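Next up, sample data:
>
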Amino acid sequence: MQRALTGRGEGWPIFAILLLVLFPGIVRAQEQTPVALVEAVENAPAAGVDFLDYVFAGQSIDLGRSGRLTLTFLNGCAVEKVTGGVVTVALPKSTVRGGRLQHIAKPCNEAQLQVSAENREAGAAVARINSTFGEDWSEQVVNTAKPLFKWPGDGPAEVSIVSLDEDPPAVLWQGQTVRSRLRYPDRAPPLQTGYPYEVRVRRGDGASFRAVFSIDPDLEDDGTILSRVVTLVQAGQ
């Protein structure tokens, strides 16, 4: 999509204008950071979204008369359940035309660094994360040792899990997929409770994504997929 818009030739500006007019949601989705995940969608063939798809602020989703949609916001602060109508995704709350929307506010889940009591290098681990991400970083905590990793855009991708508890950080596992998500395999080295890890994804088109996460089996399940899913952001954001 981006290569088509930036390619040489006299025809591409007209194509870009047509794309902006006919498919504004697609162009907007390319430019923005996702704000929510689709947790469920039913009876909505025109919705244009599927399970675990990212959605973006300003994106419209057509549920028809009786389609149902559940969105889990990535900031952990809300879940929305919509029946029918056309939904316009927004923060802090979406809107719907011709349908019903239930906005369920939750205490925002501020991620905290979870390091086991046996780890004498907890401070060093934080320093290593700071050196990679800067001081403005956040960690996602999930309650399963087999988390699902999710990033934008399908296509061939290489996935790496890095142990940030090592000095220097060491690659624990690597694998490939052609989808925009991957569950940590059963045969991969086990992820330890409380230790910080980084997941890195590099798509075949060169785009890269990353996230810091840890495992806490005692984390309360809030009833959403966020307790089991690690969502990645584009490297550099």
Notes: The longest strand covers residues 170-177.
